[in-house]
Amino acid sequence: MARISSLLINGAKRPVDADAQSSLLSVLREQLDLSGTKYGCGEGQCGACTVLIDGVPRRSCLTPVADAEGKAITTIEGLAHGDHLHPLQEAFLAEEAMQCAYCTSGMIMSAKRSTETSAAAARILASSPPCSARPA
Ligand code: FES
Fold first, then answer.
1. For the chain: N or C, fewer Cβ within 10 A?
2. CB of 80 within 8 A of CB of 89?
3. Distance of CA 30 to CAs 33, 73, 128, 136, Å?
4. How many domains does the chain have?
5. Residue 136 forms part of a structural domain
6. Counting atoms of ligand 1 from 1, which one is nearest the CA of 45?
7. pTM given for the model
């Protein structure tokens, strides 16, 4: 059975030892301690497990880890730069948009893609504090 031995996560190559068909979510949470990505429904419906793979939001609960091998995976832990939150994280805090907060990381990861493609969402970024992670 094929095994996956490393993943590119938040800009760093990380060693893993996973069956190729394991869910990306399980590898993130159980092997890499990236617990910001949440397990909700496990059926691709709720979005709590959303991460970016090569910049595209994907439900990590339904994504075999083999599909993410060799691609750039971004989790919620990869958005902030040191003490500087990503503008979307700042906006969620400013607007108290957390609700219970369980799904917040998935919402932010989905919104990140939207802000890169939507003029309305870009206004959120424009009104946020400067951030070195903001796209030019
Ligand atoms: S856990 Fe609900 S979509 Fe993945």
1. C
2. yes
3. 6, 16, 34, 35
4. 1
5. no
6. 3
7. 0.83
CB-based contacts of 48, cutoff 8 Å, min separation 6: 37, 38, 39, 40, 41, 102, 103, 105, 106
Q: Is residue 18 part of a domain?
A: yes
Q: For residue range 79-112, what is the model confidence (pLDDT) as tens digits?
A: 999 899 999 999 999 998 877 888 999 999 999 8
Tokens of 107: 């919402």
Q: Is position 53 within any domain?
A: yes
In a domain, 135, yes or no: no
Integer distance in angstroms from the first to the last C-alpha of the chain? 43
- 127 CA from centroid of ligand 1 (Å): 31
Pocket of ligand 1 contains residue 41 by CB under 6 Å: yes
Q: Strand 72-74 to strand 50-53: parallel, antiparallel, or no bridges (unpaired)?
A: antiparallel
